[in-house]
């Protein structure tokens, strides 16, 4: 069966600043990674050195036949001390944006992808009464470099951020899927929503939205009410915030089954990925359906989907299934504008370099990039607009 995607569909790959650039020294996460006795297995360190090697990354995206690249601006570089903005960092990101435009790539720019400046964290983070104003001031500072950018993601996975706020407070390890996590810290969730809406005001005229960790909560037998109650704080409330947005980002990897007493562990017999998540390509189509049903009239951009695996053929298998599900959801009426694979590079996976999500491997010593067959496979789909 052959499936065609619409003309003008965005086909791309994604990454984020902290995971790819390296030496994000003014950020909150750098401080955590480098403190004595840190629970992180790996430090981000030089990451993929994309702060210097971004032209090579963009060349790869273009040569593959993809037409879009998602990356994030790093607030900690742009405002390393409160109220002190780095013109050099702003100029850097302007060059990356221009680098995309020169290559005919549509940039999808995220303003906040998990990390914040250390001063922001130390000043109370999202729970400070100043948080929304601080974020708005940052958004104002980056506005002048966004010329030519059509797609802006304000905050990446606010639902995960708000759940992490609770998790970090409990000083637990950050293992498992987002879905099995504690409910979000509601004050953090409210602050993120307010920050998002403030950012959208500043970004008027650009297409802006936020990107949700779409967790595919499925009800175990007889647990529909429990599933609904589980999903409401962890996902639905964040979708509701997006009801007037220009688009919403769907980021789907797997599913989580909810029983009478909450999230069930991935069954022993289930096939798993390197992150321990269930191998479940249908996650994407289901997440798109779920989102479309809750946000009628809001265009969807798949801002992340992918798999951590050491076997590249498994990446193709997973992605083929995910794209088939996406196509089906679109045929049923979901208004989806593009598909951005996570990730372009084998980048820093928040504490470890072990789970490799990349279409492209990166030598950890030399930073040399090597295309995996999945990269070319996805590039061919992008060129033809067809999934065979
Ligand atoms: C995040 C990425 C992350 C990916 C895989 C998403 O939660 O936005 O930064 O690497 O999932 O875990």
Amino-to-carboxy terminus distance: 6 Å
Tell me the total number of β-strands: 15
- Tell me the radius of gyration: 19 Å
* Residue share in helix: 25-40%
Overall pLDDT? 95
Biggest beta-sheet profile: 8 strands, parallel, barrel
Category by helix and strand content: alpha/beta
Contiguous helical run count: 13
Report the uncertain regions.
171-175
Fraction in beta strands: 15-25%
Q: Looking across the biggest beta sheet, what order are the strands in?
A: 2-3-4-5-6-8-11-12
Shape: globular
Each distinct ligand: beta-D-glucopyranose
What attributes does this structure have?
eight-stranded parallel beta barrel, binds beta-D-glucopyranose, single chain
Structural overview:
The chain has an eight-stranded parallel barrel with strand order 2-3-4-5-6-8-11-12, surrounded by six helices. By secondary structure, the chain is of the alpha/beta class. It has helices spanning 17-20, 28-34, 50-64, 75-78, 87-102, 118-122, 131-142, 158-169, 186-202, 224-241, 283-294, 312-331, 373-384; strands at residues 3-4, 10-14, 68-72, 106-112, 151-156, 207-214, 217-219, 248-252, 256-259, 262-263, 300-304, 336-342, 360-362, 369-371, 386-387. α12 (312-331) links the parallel β11 and β12 (336-342). The chain contains 13 helices and 15 strands. It is globular and about 55 Å long. The termini are close together. The structure holds beta-D-glucopyranose (BGC). Beta-D-glucopyranose binds next to loops.
């Amino acid at each position: 069966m052959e499936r065609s995607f619409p003309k003008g569909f965005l086909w791309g790959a994604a990454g984020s600043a902290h995971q790819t650039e390296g030496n994000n020294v003014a950020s909150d996460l750098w401080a955590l990674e480098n403190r004595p006795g840190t629970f992180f297995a790996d430090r981000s360190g030089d990451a993929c050195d994309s702060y210097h090697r971004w032209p090579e990354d963009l060349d790869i995206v273009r040569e593959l036949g993809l037409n879009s690249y998602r990356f994030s601006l790093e607030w900690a570089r742009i405002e390393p001390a409160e109220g002190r903005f780095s013109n050099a960092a702003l100029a850097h990101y302007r060059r990356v944006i221009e680098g995309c435009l020169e290559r005919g790539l549509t940039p999808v720019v995220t303003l906040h992808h998990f990390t914040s400046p250390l001063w922001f964290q130390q000043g109370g983070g999202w729970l400070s009464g100043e948080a929304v104003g601080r974020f708005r001031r940052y958004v104002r500072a980056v506005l002048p470099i966004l010329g030519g950018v059509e797609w802006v993601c304000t905050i990446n996975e606010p639902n995960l951020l708000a759940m992490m706020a609770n998790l970090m407070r409990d000083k637990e390890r950050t293992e498992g899927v987002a879905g099995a996590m504690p409910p979000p810290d509601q004050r953090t969730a409210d602050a993120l929503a307010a920050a998002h809406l403030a950012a959208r005001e500043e970004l008027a005229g650009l297409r802006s939205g936020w990107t949700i960790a779409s967790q595919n909560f499925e009800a175990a037998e007889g647990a529909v009410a429990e599933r609904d109650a589980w999903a409401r704080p962890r996902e639905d409330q964040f979708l509701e915030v997006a009801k007037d947005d220009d688009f919403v980002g769907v980021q789907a990897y797997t599913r989580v089954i909810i029983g009478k007493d909450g999230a069930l562990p991935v069954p022993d017999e289930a096939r798993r990925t390197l992150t321990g998540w269930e191998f479940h390509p249908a996650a994407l189509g289901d997440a798109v359906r779920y989102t479309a049903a809750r946000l009628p009239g809001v265009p969807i951009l798949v801002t992340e989907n992918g798999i951590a695996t050491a076997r590249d053929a498994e990446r193709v298998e997973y992605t083929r299934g995910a794209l088939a599900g996406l196509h089906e959801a679109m045929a049923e009426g979901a208004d989806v504008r593009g598909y951005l694979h996570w990730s372009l590079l084998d980048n820093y996976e928040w504490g470890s370099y072990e789970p490799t999500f990349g279409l492209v491997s990166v030598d950890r010593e030399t930073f040399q990039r090597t295309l995996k067959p999945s990269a070319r496979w996805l590039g061919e789909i992008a060129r033809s607009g067809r999934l065979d």
